[in-house]
Specification:
- Helix content is 38%, strand content 15%.
- By secondary structure, the chain is α+β, with helices and mostly antiparallel strands.
- The strands form ten sheets. A six-stranded mixed sheet has the order 3-4-7-6-5-12, with helices on both faces.
- It starts with a helix and ends with a helix.
């Protein structure tokens, strides 16, 4: 009972506890057979203990001696001068012991390689009293480490395992290199390569070697004359000036003296608390998934846990504690020592983060910056929110998914490709504690940007690739000369980051004004605002659209780095706005004459919709009152790839080009009040609606609006009739009436069709009913047009208002999927909307929703790439997590979805669960074979992965030239490519490959002619999309033998993939028997050449075309078989005939055909 209560209180569910237990088993290094590793560790100790002595030699003698042994001493910068007076010696270690997590059995497996730390304590008598000054200790330490390496080189045979030796930086500290031993697989008894670990040799000293007060945070231990020997030591001003403190240098020395003490501290907690080891391992996994294992570190995490355990503090303290105001002291009384060198003020004035060890003298967080701490607390707060979500399985998000990828975690990113050799902030006094300007830049830049951009940022994270290990015989790599780009990621505050004005203090606060002007320089100006406020401010250039304003923060960062960090703006690349041109017409040419006219926004369309709604609601003389006027178009829910634009045919402005541009008509549903007098058949209902349309058109026309009524089409007895209305300033709307009976009547037709089919009555056509399949299509059509689309549009409209960057993300995702010819085959447009919405409604494993369209699209692509869609196809989309959907109903629906996905023959596809569609059925791809649907979705996941790889390469190379490749799809996997005439495509202005030279460019001489200035062909092409009609025709005639792919956003090609059965028939040997009704044009293969003149003159067989396929049957060419005996004729698909028919159907539109596999013509 006690265990059950513990599970409920701590883990909230048995499943979560079981997952934790299994994870700990998987990552626990101590569960492996480490006997080979232990043998090697013991042998290393024997080698070190038996080492001989090297008496005092000069620095040049030390270099020469080590060079003869194949080792280059890893002196930290600055290296000792040739005339250095002190000497270097070596004696066998005073102590060799295992340090760190391996001894505590708290070591966590690492996907790359985990480290076993072997501490080697150097004898005290190797050091003089003043060796803590001017890098003497670190130089002697480097020599000692080089000797240890030289001892191992000739003993590789005695170790019984091949080793690769290299030097590396210890925990990123350039002053404290370590020796790393990597095992090479040999299969010997001491081969521990299968453990995926390495051994690190860490030189250290005893606590009493140096006087601790001399290494306090305020003390200076690197004299200015050491870095600049040419400086005049006799200068009186220099002699009397206070020496700059060197807290980082001092802390490095103290860290080496406390290894044994820290190990004892942790060992006490491991032995005193059974769960401490498991908690430490779990914390290290959590850190690793957030890439904090290198910057914050598992050691500091474990020490902090030990302090919390001792002080009985709450486990949430890391997330909530104010480290700036309240430093942490792990001393017995949690207070600083009563010593002047180790006071609270001494630590706080020297370090960003203060976490002092149990001795009260060493800041364990001396190398942790404030930005790293902010990232840690940000992630901790996010994880606590996830842990508190009742009924949600967040284990995978917390411990299995990496959440710190620069591409998907940050809303905006800048990459610094080069830093200057000097800049104002990097003074000589700073260089004493930061000998590397790159190291100082990584420390200074986050503090600068955080201070200046605080109100705009949620989080700032700096990343730079660490120095890689180097060979023993190589020189120590210089971080400045081998500069790797610095990447700074910004998580933006959604509202404040969009401000184009940075507001400063008022003129009365002179101190703040001075600081503001010092920060912003000449850009700062005193301004009066509309509300009467007078304040210092900086104005940044940005368009009114949200995508442009979201880049203001990056512009500010580049300016600040240039002004205060000395960085040339040409060496800074900003990421976040590179995708905006893909949402522009005319190839992103903002200066295109037509683009200057078509600058309407979604708000313009919404205003026009409000005007239409008001006009329709004012129609009081209709037989039935109007209940609702609902948008059901993507253009009215901020989700269409391009904002709807006024059109000349609807009264809008004329474009200064002669190429056709399609009129964007937006769909609207008008809900009338309920009535039982509506007709009871679909056809009659359409005619009744037609009467309403005619009356509404008359009334609206009397109000000065342009209207047109479209008659119902018998082929679509559900929603083909509608009313077209043009609203100033030129927006067109397509209005449909909803009676509330459409779906019910369609289901009644389906029921009649089932009864008729079951009773085997006369054919459905003769009986005046629909076939079962056709009736099911009508039900789907009625539900989609009158119920699903309005509900979806309303949901997306509300979500886009709640999340400002969702609209641009949806549009980019639609553009991406369409550009790869997969919109409608891999994802429906509405499914793409919900996929993007999922990244905002449930951002886990990330702490917050995206605050830029760049981040939104990257997260969507990462979701496509990383999710196991076969095992977890259901994606929940809620406006607020846990507020809309009953958890039990959701879980039951998820089980049904998973069962359906696991059924034989089921396609791999996502299901999007919403409050109105728990089973995720609404927006599945339909009309495509299951096999093709699965292949298309797999291709989408593959291109998403490839696109992310391209963007990552762009970040590494520091260029955005590769970004267009993410929207370019390879055509090698398609069987046929049909090239279309761009001049006949009224959506070509939306094409990614728009080229004004391939479309009519003649401008009208008189702009005031408006609609009258266009020829009849252009007018016709602006009212319908021939590409869309051509695709429908191809699907109607050839949908059983091929799948058609295209880009609905101005694509100028149609790609085709042959059906598997079609290819099987083509390659069948022997060919199949000829029969009537083959689903394709066939080549008749006669078994024996005929000599009968009557037969030779006989017309070849013909394939009867469908009712609307043409006027006359098409002759099918006959071929004589090569060889063969008597018998019936054989038939094989005639590829050339099929292609010819496809071209004929697209006459005037198709200008070229590419058959990828020419060998198919040989088979046909």
């Amino acid at each position: 009972m006690h265990e059950l209560k513990e599970t409920t209180d701590l883990f909230q569910s048995n499943l979560f506890k079981m997952q934790i237990d299994e994870l700990l088993k998987e990552v626990d290094f101590s569960r492996q057979n480490a006997a080979p590793l232990d043998k090697v560790l013991h042998r290393l100790k024997e080698i070190f203990d038996s080492a001989g002595e090297i008496k005092g030699i000069t620095v040049e003698g030390a270099k020469t001696k080590m060079a003869t042994l194949g080792v280059n001493i890893p002196f930290p910068h600055p290296a000792p001068a040739a005339d250095t007076k002190y000497q270097f010696s070596f004696k066998r270690p005073a102590k060799v012991f295992i340090a760190g997590s391996y001894l505590l059995k708290a070591l966590v497996k690492n996907p790359k390689s985990c480290a076993i730390d072997l501490a080697v304590q150097m004898p005290d008598d190797l050091f003089l009293e003043k060796d803590h000054l001017n890098y003497r200790y670190f130089h002697k330490r480097a020599f000692y480490l080089a000797v240890l390496a030289s001892l191992l080189l000739p003993h590789t045979d005695s170790l019984s395992v091949d080793m690769k030796f290299s030097f590396s930086l210890g925990n990123g500290d350039p002053r404290r290199p370590v020796l790393v031993l990597y095992p090479v697989a040999t299969g010997s008894p001491t081969d521990f390569s299968r453990l995926k670990c390495c051994i690190r040799i860490l030189p250290c000293i005893s606590p009493g070697v140096f006087s601790s007060p001399k290494l306090g945070p305020r003390r200076n231990n690197v004299r200015p004359g050491f870095l600049h020997p040419q400086q005049d030591a006799g200068d009186a001003s220099t002699a009397t000036a206070p020496l700059p403190r060197t807290p980082r240098y001092n802390s490095s020395v103290l860290h080496d003296s406390a290894m044994a003490g820290h190990l004892n501290f942790l060992h006490t907690h491991v032995t005193g608390c059974a769960a401490f080891k498991d908690a430490a391992m779990l914390g290290k996994v959590w850190l690793y998934q957030r890439t904090l294992h290198d910057t914050f570190g598992g050691f500091l995490w474990t020490m902090l846990m030990g302090y919390l355990l001792t002080s009985k503090s709450s486990a949430v303290r890391i997330a909530q504690h104010n480290f700036t105001a309240q430093a942490i002291f792990m001393t017995p009384d949690s207070k600083p020592l009563d010593e002047p060198e180790f006071t609270l003020d001494a630590f706080k004035s020297a370090y960003d983060v203060v976490i002092v060890d149990p001795t009260g003298q060493i800041n364990l967080a001396s190398f942790v910056s404030s930005s790293v701490l902010a990232q840690l607390q940000h992630e901790a707060r996010s994880s606590l929110v996830l842990l508190k979500e009742l009924g949600a399985d967040r284990f995978e998000v917390l411990f299995l998914k990496k959440s710190a990828n620069t591409l998907v975690n940050f809303d905006s990113t800048i990459s610094i490709r080069k830093i200057p050799s000097s800049f104002p902030a990097y003074k000589d006094s700073v260089a004493l504690d930061f000998p590397s300007r790159t190291e100082f830049a990584c420390h200074f830049y986050p503090r600068l940007l955080t201070k200046a951009l605080k109100s705009r940022l949620v989080l700032l994270v700096l990343n730079q690739d660490p120095l890689q290990p180097w060979d023993l015989a190589q020189d120590v790599p210089d971080r400045d000369s081998k500069f790797s780009p610095i990447t700074i990621g910004f998580s933006l505050e959604p509202e404040n980051s969009l401000r184009a004005v940075e507001l400063g203090p008022g003129p009365e606060d002179t101190t703040a004004v001075t600081e503001f002007r010092r920060m912003w320089g000449s850009l700062a100006q005193l301004r009066r605002f509309n509300d009467g406020t007078i304040a210092e401010s900086v104005l940044w250039e940005a368009d009114s659209n949200i995508d442009s304003r979201s880049q203001v923060t990056a512009q500010m960062a580049v300016y600040l780095l240039s002004r205060h960090g000395g960085v040339d703006a040409r060496h800074v690349i900003s990421w976040g706005g590179e995708l905006v041109p893909f949402l522009s017409e005319f190839g992103g040419q903002t200066d295109h004459p037509a683009a200057m006219v078509r600058r309407g926004t979604f708000q313009n369309a919404m205003d026009a919709f409000q005007g239409l709604s008001k006009a329709i609601r004012a129609l009081n003389t209709l037989p039935l009152a109007i209940d609702h006027v609902t948008q059901c178009d993507a253009g009215l829910s901020y989700c269409s790839t391009f904002p709807p634009q006024p059109h000349v045919s609807a009264g809008g402005p004329a474009l200064p080009i002669s190429a056709p541009v399609l009129c964007d008509a937006m769909d609207v549903i008008v809900q009338l009040e309920g009535s039982s007098k509506w007709p009871q058949t679909l056809a009659a209902l359409q005619q009744a609606k037609l009467a309403f349309y005619v009356r509404m058109a008359e009334l609206l026309k009397s109000e000065g609006l342009q209207t047109n009524v479209s008659r119902p089409d018998p082929r679509d007895p559900v929603a083909s009739g509608f009313l077209e209305v043009a609203i100033p300033p030129g927006f067109a709307f397509r209005v449909r009436i909803k009676s509330g009976h459409e779906a019910a009547l369609a289901r009644a037709e389906l029921q009649r069709a089932k009864v008729a089919a079951k009773a085997k009555e006369s054919s459905p056509a003769d009986a005046g009913t629909f076939s079962v399949a056709r009736a099911a299509e009508l039900v789907e059509r009625a539900e989609q047009v009158f119920d699903r689309l309005p509900a979806h549009a309303t949901r997306m409209h509300n979500l886009c208002l709640r999340h400002p960057h969702l609209s641009s993300t949806v549009r980019l995702l639609r553009r991406f999927v369409a550009a790869h010819l997969l919109l409608g085959t891999a994802l429906t447009p509405q499914a793409a909307d919900l996929l993007a919405a999922a990244a905002f409604c449930d951002p886990a494993p990330f702490a917050a929703p995206p605050a830029s369209s760049w981040c939104g699209l990257m997260r969507c692509l990462a979701l496509l790439r990383d999710r196991d869609w076969a095992a977890d196809p259901a994606v929940v989309v809620e406006a607020d997590r846990g507020s809309e959907i009953d958890p039990e109903a959701l879980a039951a629906a998820r089980k049904r979805i998973e069962a359906a996905a696991a059924a034989p023959g089921a396609a791999l596809e996502p299901r999007f669960q919403t409050a109105g569609d728990l089973d995720g059925e609404w927006w599945r791809v339909r009309g495509v074979k299951e096999r093709v649907k699965q292949l298309a979705f797999r291709r989408l996941c593959s291109v998403a992965e490839a696109a992310l790889k391209v963007v990552e390469d762009s970040l590494l190379k520091g260029t955005d030239a590769l970004i267009p490749k993410t929207f370019a799809t390879p055509l090698a996997d398609f069987d046929v490519v049909l090239r279309l005439d761009p001049a006949r495509l009224p959506r070509f202005h939306q094409s990614l490959s728009y080229d004004s030279t391939v479309v009519p460019t003649e401008k009208r001489r008189f702009k005031n002619l408006g609609d009258a200035g266009r020829d009849e062909t252009t007018k016709a092409l602006e009212l319908f999309d021939p590409m869309e009609r051509y695709i429908e025709t191809l699907k109607t005639h050839f949908g059983n033998i091929m799948t058609v792919f295209h880009d609905p956003h101005g694509g100028d090609l149609v790609a085709v993939v042959w059906d598997k059965d079609f290819l099987d028939d083509l390659r069948r040997d022997p060919p199949r028997d000829y029969r009537a009704g083959l689903p394709y044009s066939a080549a008749l293969l006669l078994s024996t050449p005929s000599t009968d003149p009557a037969l030779q003159q006989q017309q070849p067989p013909t394939k009867k075309r469908r009712r609307n396929g043409g006027d006359a049957p098409v002759p099918l060419p006959a071929k004589e078989a090569v060889g063969g005996g008597g018998g019936a004729g054989k038939a094989r698909p005639h590829v050339l005939a099929v292609l010819g028919e496809m071209v004929r159907l697209g006459s005037g539109l198709v200008v070229g055909v590419e058959l990828r596999d020419q060998g198919l013509l040989e088979l046909a």
